[in-house]
Write a structure and sequence with these properties.
- It comes from Platanthera zijinensis.
- The chain is mainly alpha-helical.
- The protein is 75% helix and 0% strand.
């Protein structure tokens, strides 16, 4: 019976040492991989929005206002295309960084299959990569927001004409997206400072 207790206590002791070693390295958890997966998935959804915005506009398109002076000119369509391309570039930048970090974590993992999410990666590199990816997503959202304002102007009429539908749509878009971005940035800031 004492042999069992000795073996049992040795087993528990080794479990505690393994747990301490694993939990003492913050860069070795599956939380990072899950966060990176989420970021890539959200960026994919935003990328679809970019292409939807591009498909809904064409040069010379008339707005839904009955006044032809409220129709968007070629400069608005040009700005829309520029903002969509820049937005897509930021989302692609963010997703590629996140995918690269995920790849590094998976390639550096231990040879034990059960420890697939316990890779030892430089914590500073991981934090910088995740921060770069988050900044890319925020910048992509800002340019997507600007492009959606241009889509609204093309479809509902220029804001300078005072189109009530366009103004209400832009105000709702700005309010909701800016609030969401403020929460997202605050969460990132909190996560990196604690």
């Amino acid at each position: 019976m004492s042999v069992l207790r000795t073996e049992d206590s040795e087993f528990k002791e080794s479990d505690v040492q393994l747990t301490r070693r694993t939990s003492s390295t913050p860069a070795t958890t599956s939380v990072h991989v899950t966060a990176l997966d989420g970021l890539v998935n959200v960026n994919s959804l935003f990328t679809v929005a970019v292409f939807v915005g591009l498909s809904l506009t064409s040069p010379g398109q008339r707005s839904l206002e009955n006044n032809s002076s409220c129709d968007a000119g070629p400069d608005v369509v040009r700005n829309l295309l520029v903002f969509e391309v820049v937005s897509f570039s930021f989302f692609l930048f963010s997703s590629l960084i996140a995918q690269g970090l995920k790849l590094a974590i998976n390639l550096l993992n231990s040879k034990d299959v059960d420890e697939a999410f316990r890779a030892h990666i430089n914590a500073r590199v991981l934090r910088l990569g995740m921060l770069g990816s988050a900044v890319g997503s925020v910048m992509g959202c800002l340019f997507l927001l600007l492009s959606m304002v241009n889509v609204i102007q093309i479809r509902l009429g220029m804001l300078s004409c005072g189109s009530s539908a366009a103004v209400r749509s832009v105000v709702a878009l700005l309010t909701l997206v800016c609030t969401a971005l403020a929460v997202y940035i605050s969460t990132i800031f909190y996560a990196f400072t604690h």
